[in-house]
Amino acid sequence: MPPRPDWHTAMTREARAAPEFAAFTLTAAPLLATLPRGDGHPVLVLPGLGGSDTSTAPLRWFLGQLGYRSFGWGLGENRGFGRHVTDGLDELLAAKRERGPVSVIGWSLGGLHAVDLARRRPDAVRSLIPLGSPLAGHPRPPATIPTTSIYSRSDAIVPWRTSMLQAAGRRENVEVRGSHLGLGHNPAVIVVVADRLAQRAGQWRPFKAPAWAGRWLRAAA
User: Fold this and answer.
1) Residue 1, pLDDT score
2) Rounded to whole angstroms, how far apart are CA atoms 3 and 46?
3) Which of 16, 58, 152, 204 could form a disulfide with 179 if both were Cys (CB 3.0 to 4.6 A apart)?
4) pTM summary value
5) Do 68 and 97 contact (CB within 8 A), yes or no?
């Protein structure tokens, strides 16, 4: 594995998150007209380390426009692991579970929280989508839950290889182009997330990038 860049270099590379947000803003309307509509099932979106529900607001807004009942975790800034997070997520999942199994999207560290939540309550989780999450060395998600790990080779925060799952069963990896800090509003991520969430329960299939999105996406690995 190549050495990690120093912090200054990493932040310089991660400055791409700003133009990625501009691209998200400009492409939101065309994407909404192109992507599959949701079935209304609940979708929980978890922030990364140091992030709060504010950081996931653009993604949650977009999911709402697609027809999903998207919501944040309501636990303030993500400061890591602990009883506060475990109990809070368990209670939140129990409350939202009344409307059906919940899909969980976790950005960076939030992806690890998502996996842990699914391992505790596999009956209540419909699908998992980690975004740039350091999954290597962490307990694997349950094999019965469709899981799509989205990663970028140009991620300057989390080494992309640590985001790779063993592609087997209902687990897969999909590569996008972009920064780590922009994953929550990257148009390519939106395309993948919308496709994965639109699958009917129990009818999983591997992701296949639409031809028109080829400039944003690379083949699943």
Assistant:
1) 44
2) 28
3) 16
4) 0.91
5) no
Radius of gyration of the chain (CA): 16
Q: In the structure encoding, which two tokens stand for residue 158, read together? A: 């989390």
Predicted confidence (pLDDT) at residue 170 exceeds the cutoff of 70: yes
Phi, psi of 216 (to 5 degrees): -105, -25
Residue 213, φ and ψ in degrees, nearest 5: -100, 10
11 phi, psi to nearest 5 deg? -65, -35
- 22-70 confidence digits (pLDDT tens): 888 888 888 899 999 999 999 999 999 999 999 999 999 999 999 999 9
